Amino acid sequence: NAGVTQTPKFQVLKTGQSMTLQCAQDMNHNSMYWYRQDPGMGLRLIYYSASEGTTDKGEVPNGYNVSRLNKREFSLRLESAAPSQTSVYFCASKLSGGVGLFFGSGTQLSVL
Amino acid sequence: KQEVTQIPAALSVPEGENLVLNCSFTDSAIYNLQWFRQDPGKGLTSLLLIQSSQREQTSGRLNASLDKSSGRSTLYIAASQPGDSATYLCAVRRDTGNQFYFGTGTSLTVIP
Question: Running along chain A, 112 residues long, what does each successive block of 10 average in pLDDT?
């Protein structure tokens, strides 16, 4: 029973490099989310996808792109990484309706 | 925009003590409120979810209450144990849309 799986767990990039964070859930959830967590700032929503084929911007979307590849997978891409994007990134998912969020274990990203 | 505040930011208590963690939110038009636990370097684990129509939820030694009109929720932990040491976060879902708003968390240390 994997739940929400994120890869990689750790990544170090140089400024200007690109990378994609992967997220997959096996709970048949409709909605998926990408958050970043920074000290003293809590979790902030980057993008979310209410259902397959739809994506919407959250609070801090600049510098990121997302793809809802299918119902299971939701990827986050950094096209040209900047030091300000050093953070811990979390993927989450939920069913439709009044249920809560389920989180992956996170990706710690450092941009030098 | 929904603002979610958790005070205090850190709390240290001796083992066996009962304690209350606070979460306040600015917009009472919420769909539900969820409490999470986060261990260092880990993802978020859901503890309790309270629907907007409910007043409280209980799970083992945990009890969460919700007062929508005053914009407050509390998480009560009975007979605290060193294993309860973690950061506790609350998240509020608005009554429209799929976005969740997080507090910055309370870091709890239970001293043996």
Answer: 90 97 95 93 92 92 95 96 97 83 95 96
